[in-house]
Amino acid sequence: MSKVIGQAISRKDGRAKVTGTATYAAEHQIPGLVHGYLVTASIASGRIQQIDTSAAKQAPGAIAVFTHQNVPQISKPQTGMLYEQRLPLADDRVYYGGQIIALVVAQTFEQARDAAHLIQVKYENTTALVDAQQAIFEDVKSFMGEALQLEQVAVGDFAAALASATTKIEATYTTPTELHAPMEPHAIIAHWQGSDSLTIYEPSQALALMQYTYAQLFGIPQEQVRVISPYIGGAFGSKAFPWPHAILCAVAARELQCPLKLVLSRRQMTANTGHRSETVQTISLGADAGGKLIAIDHVAKSCTSLVTAFPEPCVLITPAMYAAPNLRVKQQLATMNVGSPTFMRAPGENPGMWALESAMDELAWALNIDPVELRLKNETQQHQSKKLPFSAKSFADCLTVGSAQFGWQNRPQPRSLTRGGKLVGWGMAAATFPGYRGQASAQVRLLANGTAQVLTSGNDMGTGAYTIIAATAADMLGLPVEQVHVQLGDSLLPNGGMAGGSMMTASLAPSVMAACQEVLKIANVTTASEAFAALRQSGLPAFEATATTAPGAETKQWAFQSWGAHFCEVSVDEEIGRLQVTRWVSVMNIGQVMNAKTAASQVRGGVIMGIGQALMEECNYDPHIGYPVVYDLATYHFPVHADIPQIGVTFVGEPDFNFNPAGARGVGEIGITGVAAAIANATYHATGKRERTLPITPDKLIGS
Fold first, then answer.
1. Cβ-based burial of 91 (10 A; exposed 0-12, middle 13-18, buried ≥19)
2. pLDDT digits (tens, 9 = 90+) for 622-675
3. Per-residue model confidence as pLDDT tens digits over 85-128
4. Is 90 exceeded by the pLDDT of residue 689?
5. Neighbours of 72 (CB within 10 A)
6. What are φ and ψ of residue 184, in 5° steps?
């Protein structure tokens, strides 16, 4: 791999997106399309005593109203994945504010919305639990069906080790509920051909898995379900499996035998399409006089809904970061009357690193050791729970290169640096994310017109998959990237795996490589140019080959992890409590960089999202009705251009060929990990005040 991979290649899908020719789920035009609108609960706990739909049914353009009293039968999947285990409209119970209680179908969107507002509901209201401080937490034993096996992490005599430590710190770090807010709202068009063949237009991070799940829900063969999702306008973990609104849309479309579109409003999304749970994490660190860690204890609490058990697995990252002979972690979970939490960019790793990297900074100041030096002293060469050595680890390079680029060696004491009447602080934190890879398939076709096609159901949710797949094929075939055309996002194509867990490139690139090698073998040539000549002589329309690749024995030999370091500068105006991030340097080790342009953009996007987490993002629940107080993009605060400095991104390290033939690990999620901690650490350096609760809002900074 040489000429194309690693270069800064402009997006293959860029023109379609900026000119509006890229078609998203809600934009597909189907004859006879009708529209749906959801009715949601105005209480957080109780049951529906009465639901009067008579006026809605008589409204102009109204076609049907579905409630728990008349919802068609849906089969709960024995396997497959759902975001909520309770099926929509399964009973008269209300488990959280904003829960779906009815679907109105009409000829137009406006008619459906107007009819929905005519529905009258009487509730039997019971006391709702929406305050985590009143919740009961229990130890978590599993995550997404897999045993956490946290007991395997516990090593040594932690209590004795901490008692003997020369220096120790114990602190609690909290994060609020954070909302998913992708640019493309959740939407679906369900189109049945008869009662046993279904086409779904829906943003999907995992087409084959979603196809299989819909087949299970409706009791039809998997090949009778087609999922189409060529473009996704942001997902971050919230568009991998069916949500209740999508299941309800599909069952209503089958009942009515007409294509049905359902688009959620921003307010509906706050309750019905996932969020990152609030977390409370307590970390204890003990070190000897030289700064070597002798004890780490990490206890994390998060909250879930009454209809899905989803922990935010903050402690899973701790055994991968720093070596300690005495290590103990615990994950706990409480159920509340809130919507279901779900995956959100670096689930677990992001809040986990906020707490761990904040604690490491506190320990560095207590020891009077430079925070970079403390991390270098304590990095671990093996994953302490998997008991496996890390493959291609360049964490130390991330720290040293970032330190040099930022000028870290010139850092003064806390609260001693000012500029323009404002306090200035420098902070840093580590970044990390596991290297995941799944099974994936791709087909490569060489055409007589001198172009190549790559076809796979794998998709691009904005991360650059169209471009990376084209570049991989171009390198393997010896073609200009412009002569490679990529088709994604259709379940009729070979199963491209999941765009989640930063694994799409790591999974698909080896499949594309193998398919390219196979198609040249079929043509009995070594380059695509030779294949085109042979194709023209043969009279065949194309040479084509399909290849499937998957993880193998390497997972029992190595632990795979990507690494990074963030360095930042902040300014703080204490008179008005204004904090600005003014300078940023990130250095990443992700194995082979497949596209320098999109990889750097992914890191920058993660940093920007992390700045929002650190300074702005927060969702609270109304204590009376349990509904999120923030309900749109005006009331949920996130960064804009004026909040973001220039973000320098550098990549270090070598390709990780132990991981896959491309040597590439993921880059989509690592960029956000450690960002909030770096900002909080810089805030301490500027003000001398330690912030342990996110977001760091002006009220916390005034008169620091």
1. exposed
2. 988 888 998 888 899 999 999 999 999 999 999 999 999 999 999 999 999 999
3. 999 999 999 999 999 999 999 999 999 999 999 999 999 999 99
4. yes
5. 13
6. -85, 120
Q: Which of 357, 569, 669, 691 is catalytic?
A: 669
CA distances from 210 to 147, 424, 575, 678 (A): 23, 49, 52, 37
Residue 155 DSSP code: B
What are the pLDDT digits (tens) for 249-274? 999 999 999 999 999 999 999 999 99
| The CA-based dihedral angle spanning residues 195, 197, 202, 207, taken in that order and rounded to the nearest 10 degrees | 140
Helix (H) or strand (E) holding 261: strand 260-263
* Six-digit token string for 363: 């320990």
Q: Could you tell me the domains of the chain?
A: 14-22+438-550 (3.30.365.10), 32-127+183-235+239-272 (3.90.1170.50), 138-178+275-435+557-701 (3.30.365.10)
The vertex-172 CA angle with 166 and 175, nearest 5°, equals 145
Least Cα distance to 9 among 496, 682, 415, 599 occurs for 599
Rounded to two decimals, the pTM is: 0.96
Does residue 15 have a pLDDT over 60?
A: yes
Closest-CA residue to 233 (of 536, 516, 459): 459
Place of tokens 């330690």: 690
For residue 354, give both structure tokens.
């906020």
Tell whether the model's pLDDT for residue 144 goes beyond 70. Answer: no
Catalytic residue status for 669: yes
216: helix, strand or coil: helix
Q: How far is CA 156 from the centre of its chain?
A: 34
